[in-house]
């Protein structure tokens, strides 16, 4: 038991660290957040360039009505300007034809990826997933599990998983994880939403909540050492400062944890997770001087597993007047990374832009290419496991990030692991004099 006014150090100012620090600060803890970079946000950054605001990533939030971000909105006043995706403008490029994505009943009716018999089978599969009649089987990958389906339904389910999990190996997703994920997503009213103002808007809102509630953010402060008393962490060290705390939340990836705990008996806990393969992609954003009119705001080219999102259709604040900002993402698997195939992916993406947005080259004002962006620190395939948020042998240390156990994928893992660790801390807290008891999960 400890007083909610006791000290908590959060190491890492990405989405996990920011959301953990903001929730604790709002509930009365004295938090100090330490971030090694000059800017907050970690991988969730927005970069201004020639009047455009490039986001690192599409900043899409899946199933927003059931998302953990909604809890941050309602509980601690996080400001989110939701921009809902238009399913009627989402298409699949199947090579010889382009067809609506079956993201709604209307899309299912209009799409050509399924014939009429398979439309019924697919709808039944969705129903079974939503009602938990379909749960997968422990130890069986989804590619094998779906062998019982018709080729069209199997192919469509794997295509959908490919885009939600940002992977070109959807068949390697464990089947229980697949059905757990889609039980929630199929039941949502809003499958995909973007954030007005991009990642920067929620990074700023979290930072404001932290500082307004009397807690501290220190950037350019890399944590390089920890101090232990038995199995309790008593302090962490920055460049010159020592920061003492009762509780520490580490929101830094397993590789960094291995380094930080290197001279302690606890390094072995993180090693397994530091060797796992991350989800990596090629990202190619283009800022155009004027909009190219198109029936699509999202197009997924199935053969090469490339998708393009017209970000500025949803968020006008990221472009100068009349401009357009599009983002293309191509998935990479381990072999392609090892063979250095990123340059080929860049060329593929340009050909997809050429096909669906002719004239983009003439209107190009700014572009940003990232050939190896880490979308998720631990890819949820085969036997790769997410890291626990707590270890029994480290009683006052917690862990959060998109490499930790939680709900959903991508940033949802960062938000939900942070939510779970802060709930744990707040549930064990005794309110300081004059404070209300902190809310819990
Ligand atoms: C191209 C791309 C597209 C994406 N698209 C989406 C999307 O559409 N939807 C979605 O939900 N998610 C998306 N994501 C994923 C999302 O960006 C990440 O899941 C999320 O930002 C991870 O946040 P995090 O806090 O868990 O980790 P990180 O962002 O990695 O944060 C870790 C932080 O710790 C800091 N740090 C590390 N070591 C130390 C140290 N020793 N001392 C102090 N600080 C330290 C780092 O500087 C960093 O700020 C995308 C990501 C990318 C790259």
UniProtKB/TrEMBL annotation:
Specify the protein name: NAD(P)/FAD-dependent oxidoreductase
Q: One GO molecular-function annotation for this sequence?
A: oxidoreductase activity
Q: Which Pfam families match?
A: Amino_oxidase (PF01593)
Q: Which family does it belong to?
A: Belongs to the carotenoid/retinoid oxidoreductase family. CrtN subfamily.
Domain Amine oxidase, by residue range, is: 15-279
Natural source organism: Thermoactinomyces daqus
Could you tell me the superkingdom of the organism this chain comes from? Bacteria
